[in-house]
Amino acid sequence: MSKITTARLLAMKQARQKIAMITAYDATFATLFEQAGVHAILIGDSLGMVLQGEDSTLKVTVADIAYHTRCVANGSEKAMIVADMPFMSYSNPEQACTSAAELMRAGAHMVKLEGGDWLTETVTQLTRQGIPVCGHLGLTPQSVHVFGGFKLQGRDTEQADQIKRHARALEAAGIQLLVLECVPSQLATDISQALSIPVIGIGAGPDTDGQVLVMQDALGLTSGYVPKFTKNFLADNGNVAAAIEAYVAEVADGRFPGPEHSFN
Ligand code: KIV
Ligand code: NA
């Protein structure tokens, strides 16, 4: 596998090759996942929950993400490295540029931010400064207290149309990748077809241009509540490398996600 760039991800969408993305927070897993064929590694602010044991992502700082981005970057040679912009680190374009610069200097190739058309100016500024941006719509966990829990988004036509409008606005502003989390499969299909950029789903059905999972979920390490859209790939695959190879293969040929992992 040669180095994965934004151009390569776009070409994969155009060739209908599915993109496999997974979170990692350290060099050991980054190396292993990349060798298993993962195209993109996300340093997610999910680390607030899976590493720090918090019940949301809100306490994660830019310094936390930068530290783990450096760890991942040191273990990775080819994958696209995407770093999450944490809660309140992009409340205006200037702050976003300062936060993103720290993550890019730590080794990220792209930053991800949660939200819709109110971020268009921020997306344009970041892109102009040389920082590729990934959007994130649907269930955006930094807004958990606004949503009143981790819930499926875009359920009725009005909500779905709003998410579509936000997706188009972000694309027009310059995002080069979009994560759609916890939305009905049909909405994710519509958005993936409407946009020219690759759309990566999690709990968004089988028709997006790729999938992303939190590594702890993909390896069955999550205790307590396990989301419906995840799958334990370690259960049938003996070791971590084989499990993630199976994840990449099942994303590639459409076996994952199945209807049991999707919302209709
Ligand atoms: O923080 C994270 O891990 C994420 C993914 C679930 C998309 O944002
Ligand atoms: Na995140």
From TrEMBL:
Keyword Metal-binding: yes
Binding, Mg(2+): 45, 84, 114
Co-factor note (free text): Binds 1 Mg(2+) ion per subunit.
Alphabetically ordered keywords of this record: Cytoplasm, Magnesium, Metal-binding, Methyltransferase, Pantothenate biosynthesis, Transferase
Segments passing through the bilayer: none
Active-site residue list: 181 (proton acceptor)
Pfam families according to UniProt: Pantoate_transf
A GO-annotated cellular component: cytoplasm
Chief location: cytoplasm
Known cofactor(s): Mg(2+)
SUPFAM superfamilies given in the database record: Phosphoenolpyruvate/pyruvate domain (SSF51621)
This enzyme's EC code(s): 2.1.2.11
Residues annotated as binding 3-methyl-2-oxobutanoate: 45-46, 84, 112
Pathway named in the protein's UniProt entry: Cofactor biosynthesis; (R)-pantothenate biosynthesis; (R)-pantoate from 3-methyl-2-oxobutanoate: step 1/2
A molecular function GO annotation: magnesium ion binding
Cellular compartment(s): Cytoplasm
BP GO annotations: methylation; pantothenate biosynthetic process
Protein family: Belongs to the PanB family.
Record PANTHER family: 3-METHYL-2-OXOBUTANOATE HYDROXYMETHYLTRANSFERASE (PTHR20881:SF0)
Record NCBIfam families: panB, PRK00311.1
Subunit record text: Homodecamer; pentamer of dimers.
Protein name (database record): 3-methyl-2-oxobutanoate hydroxymethyltransferase
Native organism: Oceanisphaera psychrotolerans
Gene this protein is translated from: panB
